Fold these 2 entries.
Entry 1:
Amino acid sequence: MRRFLPFIAIALVAAVFVLVARSKPQAVQFVAATAADIQTSVVASGRVLPPARVDAGATITGRVETVRVREGARVAAGEVLVELEQRELKAAVAQAQAALKRAQARVSSVRTLALPTAVAAQQQAQVNLALAEREAQRARDLLAKGFVSQSRVDDAERQLEVARSALAGARAQSGAQAAGGAEAQQAQSQLVEAEAALQQAQAKLAQALIRAPAPGVVLERTIEPGDIAQPGRRMMTLALDGAARLIVQVDEKNLPLIRAGAVATAAADAFPGERFEAVINYISPGIDASRGTVELRLDVPKPPASLKSDMTVAIDVPGPRLENTIMLPAEAIRELQTDAPWVLVEREGRAVRVPVKTGLQTRGRVVIGDGLRTGERVILSRDLEAGARVRGRE
């Protein structure tokens, strides 16, 4: 038994030391729960959204002959960006123009030559018919008096039939050459076809020049002279001019602080000293479930000259003013993202676990709606358990 006395004494000394150490208050940091009037705001980052991003490309297949602009170039509406080879297309236009001239000449010929000729032929046929009718009547009269034979009458009758046929043919020819006739309509149809063929050829020729749809800036160029342009292949990307806008993703917890029409202060990360106003004009009705964010879009009435498309920007959106409200740093609240957040409060020298009801969160601070009394000291130290003796300073 005496052999174990030294070990027992050591164990007793250690136990006493632990008890003394546990009874000694731990030094902690704390923050006072003070009620105050608080101006809330939401700080978020986003980017500059171009008014419209357009991919320029060809609608026909052809070899690129000239690329007239490079990245960063400012272009006007209708300015030529890319020029394709045009020799074959110009030849097609020339061929269509020649066909149009032939069709026009035929219409003119029908109107000024064929129709008058047919009318004159009809008039001559009518005169010939009248002569043939008189000659046949004379032959019949002479036959009745016995001065001519029957063969003479027969010849006169044949001539009369020939004259009648000639008049019928002349009338048909004249009718065909008239405005509503077959020949005139055919000539007019050929003219319309020739005009349409010329327009088609000219349209294809125009497609060899790829133009800017509106004023803007060239963001990207993906084609060079000698490349083969094809429909559907992107040649350039343009950011069209227009009102500057910002697109920002805000944590969904900040939705109560945001309203349409609010005026935010913004600045580009590249030029933090150039601050400008931005007005919220759109709050997405849906939430991005993967990130827990909501999308905002803001108009920039007076954008600074340094603001460029896709620039990263930071915005500060003022929220409602909260009166006589307690706010704590987010790090002072345990299990903040759960349904049962709590804090450690110093009461009578010990750390006491106190459930709290949280509210709005802004700039790393959280509104405490219930659970704390004004003036209570909330412990910031994380490596502390409830019930421990504490001491510290604010």
Entry 2:
Amino acid sequence: MKVLLTRRVPDPAIRMLQEHFTVQVASEMEPLPEDKLLQVVRGADAILALADSKITAEVMDAAGAQLKVIADYGVGYDNVDLAAAIERNIYVTNTPNVENNVVADYTFALMLALMRHIVPGDRFLREGRFTHWDAYHFLGPELEGATLGIVGLGRIGSTVARRAKGFEMKIIYYDKLRKEGLESAIGVKFHSYREVLSQSDIVTFHVPLTPETAGMMDADQFALMKPSAYLINASRGKVVREAALVSALKSRQIAGAALDVYEHEPHVSQELLKMDNVVLMPHLGSSTHRAREGMGRVAAQAIIAALSGEVPDNLVEGTT
């Protein structure tokens, strides 16, 4: 049986798969354009796909009727045409739980970098402008006592909430499903989406990309936020409309933003690149050795199970 990796991933995933199957790595570093992917995918029984590899109906058909499973290397799976996979009885899996802690930690890294001016402060020193200590240099707010609004209290969002308790923050959240068990366990309060936006000092997004969440942060929503508030997005880029974000930042409708993902990734608005009140990172939320290795291990286990005639763990909803 043949397993196609759309791009090389850290071991042990490849070693695990090579013990059972013929493994082909489509590309070492750069994502393949669709026409090339359509060629190399032929005959694949399984695809291990990175998030920037679009697994369309055409790609599935090019692989052939023997394709049994698409294992996404990450939590998000919006790169896979789920309807097409369901129609063709193809399993689709992702890698939940592996990234919970590291993405939650990273969320606070973004928060602190933004609010404590870490990036402009670093640049200030490197440019030789640090000539003396100044009581007014790069002043920013503190996390202690601030209201953190979490949009999406799933695996990662709830881990962020637990971390926030250590910073002695007030935590409110919005989710399409109220999580009363977590409310009592963590000490968080449910609010409407509008209330979370209007009451929070920091709003952080931890939702999957779905038709309901796409563009859920647009001009009308930015208008609800405090002028002193900050926005953090380490979920999916299309959740936030970048044109509206740029407008809100330029008009000081909000104080700043930290982004790990982008609406038209990997392209980033030129306006954002010019701003000092934003922190911009190249989609690094899960970038630790242990997390990336764990993601590969979970994806490989799903493929091994599916090609052995078993139902793999971590099935994406609907692809049973």
